[in-house]
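hey so i finally got around to running the thing on that chain from the lab meeting. sorry it took forever, my laptop kept dying and i had to restart like 3 times. anyway pasting the input first so we r on the same page abt which one it is
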Amino acid sequence: MFFLVLRKIWNNKWMMACLLLGSILAVAMVASIPLYTDGILQRMIVKDMEAYQEKTGYYPGRYLARYCEQRVSEGQSRVSNYKYMDEFFQNRVPDELDLDYLTRVKRLGMDYMKATPQGEDTADPIYVGLFGMENFEDNIELTYGEMPASEPVDGVYEVLITLAGQNSTGLRLGQVYRVHDNTNQLAEDILVKPVGIYQRKDVGTAYWYDLESRNDSAMFLNYDLFVSDLVEQRNALTSCEWYSAIDYSSIKIDRLTAIENAIKEQISWFTQYKDTEMNFPAMSVLEEYSSREVQLRTMLWVLQAPILILLAFYMFMVSQLIVENDKNEIAVLKSRGASSGQIFRKYLLQSALLSGISVAVGPFAAFGICRLLGASNGFLEFVGRTALPLQIRSGAILYSLTAGLFTILMMMIPAMKATRITVVEHKQKAARRW
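ok and heres what got predicted. didnt touch it at all, straight out
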């Protein structure tokens, strides 16, 4: 039967070509709905993120979590809490989001410290914080002095400070300070010495997520030294911060709901613990897109419905012409014992072949249509804007399959009527025409 259908298509190739063209157009029009919707929303999400940054001054992909315990408690419990949370941020967060990052930063600190110049016990204490920050040396410029050593020098921890911090606190380079911990995390005071003044290499980079002045009283020592000595050996830690600068252009619209749910679950998990906060400020931007997607799809269906109705009538009329031309052949087949079911299956196979070609070609035709629409500013008015970020995803394929089934139905309606006509009825209708 397959070769019989192929021969029949070839013998009636021009009308079959017209039918195939209508079927491809119908599939392409339907497949273009999810394709164009995803492309427009993908472009909009990038534009909205850029607008958010201009409005707020914050990078829209910032994902920040803080654990800052101000109560006096055992240092060992704080360090164990930190390690438990750090495992969450190092593994679970990136695996669940599956996004690209511009940077990921971890900042550990000892807040609430009092520094007194060594040998000047009667001097007023200076309130400072001692911090270690990942990749700190790669993102600063040394303006005066030298970089701190990666090990204590004669029992003294070397640190960096800012010029603003020096002016506001009165810290002096080269002066050794005895630092006392107000939260009793440190069993004994430690000695620190500012050896250099730094400034940020580029304030506009994603690394510097905190543009406030709280670093003015901060002394930064080597991060690895902070972890190995203060955290691991002394169990001294009062604050932890994990910061991720997510590349928001890697947020794909088809994963938007999954990303939203993952972020909400992560925030809920982390903030169940005391003295924690976690936020992704751009969540408000993402949450708008579910309703936007529904509105855009509805609008496209409304706009395309008249065209699809016309295409449906077109395929129906062409199919009816083909069946009319085949009525003599149907009568001959029935006179030779062919059943209505056999003839129906022949037309079904013919329709399935044409529809299969349409489903295979339709998504690519839809891709071209959407690319053309994305470059147009109006009717026959094309501009040089960036092409829509289009991808043929599962949604477009599913729509194509649905449209393919619809085209089969439109092609089979005339055939279903024709297969029910008997040989006698066909001869009687032919005689009436004369």
